[in-house]
Amino acid sequence: MFLKGQDIIASLQLFLGVGPRWTYAELARKLGLSVGGANMAVRRARDAGLLMGDPDGGDKPVARRQALLAFLEHGVATAFHTSPGAVVRGLPTAHSAPPLLGSIHTPSSELPLVWPDAEGTVRGRSVEPLYRSAPGIARRDPEMYELLALVDSVRCGAARERTLAVEHLRQRLLHASAK
After folding, report:
1. Across the 179 residues of the chain, what is the mean pLDDT of every consecutive 10-residue run?
2. Fewer CB near the last or first residue (10 Å), C or N of the chain?
3. How far, CA to CA in Å, does 144 sit from each of 47, 85, 106, 137?
4. What is the DSSP string of the chain?
5. In the chain, what are the domains?
6. Cα 61 to the chain's mean position, in Å?
7. 36: Cβ contacts below 8 Å, ≥ 6 apart
């Protein structure tokens, strides 16, 4: 089995938490997936070592924080590389979105990076999201939005953007209290 973008998104959502007694239907709603799609995303992420059984004895998988960080730092840019494309209307991502917005000096003539999105209000260079539901997830969940934008900075950013994004991801994944 190969990892898919929705597997990374599911792993990030399970890191943040879905609820103490979450169901695959609830995870699917949060991620814009079918129930079967959510189940398969979790299965692939678990097979890849990004998720593990609940160490507290629960029946649902949880994020393996170190493994997830290692993949985001060293693998996601290769496995899910993207380059800015055509100018479109969309939702800002990568260093054009929180939490890196304002941390990276860019010339005022440079267009922001955006996920193509019909509901978007910003014109910028398009970046293919990890999964097509990313803009919807971002509109509903600011914490997931920040994580997805950081992952995009790793996927398509220059060295400085990647380094800052990894620092933020490390802080969140390893130093956040357990969910």
Report:
1. 94 92 94 97 97 84 96 97 96 96 82 96 97 97 98 96 97 79
2. N
3. 23, 23, 24, 7
4. ----HHHHHHHHHHHH---TT--HHHHHHHHT--HHHHHHHHHHHHHTTSEE--TTS-SS-EE-HHHHHHHHHHTHHHHT-----SEEEEEE-GGGSTTTTTTS---TTSPPEEEE-TT--EEEEE---SSTTHHHHHHH-HHHHHHHHHHHHHHH--HHHHHHHHHHHHHHHHHSPP-
5. 5-79 (1.10.10.10), 87-175 (no CATH)
6. 18
7. none
Residue-wise over 115-139: b if at least 16 C-beta within 10 A, else e? bbbeebebebbbbbbbbebbbbbbe
Phi and psi at residue 73, to the nearest 5°: -75, -40
Q: What is the pLDDT of residue 107?
A: 78
Amino acid of residue 34: S
